[in-house]
Amino acid sequence: MQYLVHWKGYPREEETWEPVSNITNAKDAVRDFHCAHPNAPCPINTRQLKFVPITVDNSVPWDDNKQVFDWTKGKLPGKSSRPQRSEPFSDIVLYIQPEHMTKIANHTKNHDYCKYELPHTVHHLWFFKTTLVDAITFMATTGPAKRPGEVNDSSGIGNNDFNAGLKGCKFRYPIIQLYQFTDLLDRKTLRGKYGLTPPTSHFIPPPWLSRDHTPEKLLTRIY
Q1: CB 72 within 8 A of CB 196
Q2: Tens-of-pLDDT digits for all 223 residues of the chain?
Q3: Helix or strand or coil: residue 141?
Q4: Superfamily for 91-221?
Q5: Domain boundaries in the chain?
Q6: When you count CB atoms within 10 A of the terminal residue's CB, does the N or C end of the chain come out lower?
Q7: What CA–CA distances, in Å, run from 171 to 112, 115, 118, 119, 162?
């Protein structure tokens, strides 16, 4: 579960979605939010849950070939450790607010910023537009991460502030080319067609999803 956080001293456009674990020092603000919005989803206190034991029929053999890999958790059912990837990944899905996506689409914002550094092998950014859209809508090709002082382009929104260290993030990724998905990948499509339930933070698209949506397939180039 995530909350849309407004950072003190920053404009509204710098609001970010943060998991519950990142806002433990803002309990009063969270409580006030739920008091004002009683119907909003809220974290579940697992201590209040009652677990009922179930009986497993061990007489039915388990077919390992029928196990379904859970890409949101990075493991097979019953396996506690994350399997090692045989190859480095080149694509990653990032959540983005619609107003920021609009600026990238009209090329007034030519970099996307992150508080964390992505692996150097990443060169495709998939944008999962939040709120009313709630779907993967665009893919961008990108280059190596840039740190404050390394963005030699003052034309893009936020670039000067980033270079001056005023953005509150350490990395910025150039938007080199932008593609729009011919058909939006909403949660219903991801679950029904690809068996994928998107997690609440950035994630690696499974290989079969990446293969179906390359810049040469099912995408329209914007610039």
Answers
A1: yes
A2: 788 888 888 887 778 888 888 888 888 888 888 788 777 777 766 666 666 665 555 555 545 554 444 444 554 444 444 444 456 788 999 999 999 999 999 999 999 988 888 888 999 999 999 888 899 999 999 999 999 999 988 999 999 999 998 888 889 999 999 999 988 899 888 888 878 888 888 888 888 888 888 877 778 999 9
A3: strand
A4: Hypothetical protein. (2.30.130.30)
A5: 2-36, 91-221
A6: N
A7: 9, 6, 9, 12, 9
